[in-house]
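User: Hi! I have a protein structure encoded as tokens and I'd like to know what sequence might fold into it. I'm fairly new to this, so please keep things simple.
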């Protein structure tokens, strides 16, 4: 009799736990779906030479098919760890005209960013680095933490969002960007 009661209690707790997790997952999915950025914001950022850089103009004038916008900071350990792999991905896809990468340093000192970027310029001298020290742009993108990456098409529609550090050298990412480019 004791054994039956223990089994029934275990089954009941398992059912409650499963039901609770399903409800929790539904809440996370539905709330995230509502907050996902649908379209690239029409904003201007500043580059390292303190020139204005408008994202819409860049896509239109440079004939960009796929734009990857990566938010990061020199003060962020995961950002620093993943940065070399993302630079290598950008270099690997450089031959594919139409796939572009923008690196947006947030809440950062310009000199620290320049020093950090200098380490990678030998691998990829054409890095496009922008600065966002006013958090206005992070808010427009809905970026809460870094690293965070958005992928847009030439129609400025959001194709994908990646939160947290990624292993950018995996074939998955280069294949994904190439497939996005093919589905113009």
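Assistant: Happy to help. Inverse folding works backwards from shape to sequence: for each of the 184 positions I chose a residue that suits the local structure. Here it is:
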């Amino acid at each position: 009799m004791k054994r039956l009661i223990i089994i029934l209690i275990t089954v009941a707790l398992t059912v409650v736990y499963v039901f609770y997790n399903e409800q929790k997952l539904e809440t996370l999915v539905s709330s995230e779906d509502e907050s996902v950025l649908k379209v690239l914001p029409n904003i201007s950022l500043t580059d390292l030479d303190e020139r204005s850089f408008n994202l819409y103009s860049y896509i239109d004038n440079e004939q960009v098919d796929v734009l990857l916008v990566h938010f990061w900071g020199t003060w962020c350990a995961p950002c620093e760890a993943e940065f070399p792999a993302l630079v290598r991905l950008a270099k690997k896809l450089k031959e594919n005209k139409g796939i572009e990468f923008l690196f947006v340093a947030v809440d950062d000192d310009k000199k620290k960013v320049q020093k950090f970027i200098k380490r990678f310029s030998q691998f990829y001298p054409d890095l496009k680095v922008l600065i966002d020290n006013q958090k206005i742009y992070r808010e427009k993108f809905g970026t809460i933490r870094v690293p965070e990456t958005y992928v847009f098409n030439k129609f400025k529609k959001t194709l994908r969002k990646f939160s947290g550090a990624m292993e950018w050298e995996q074939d998955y990412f280069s294949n994904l960007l190439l497939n996005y480019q093919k589905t113009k």
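A useful reference point when you look it over: Confidence is low (pLDDT under 50) at residues 24-35. Feel free to ask if any position seems puzzling.
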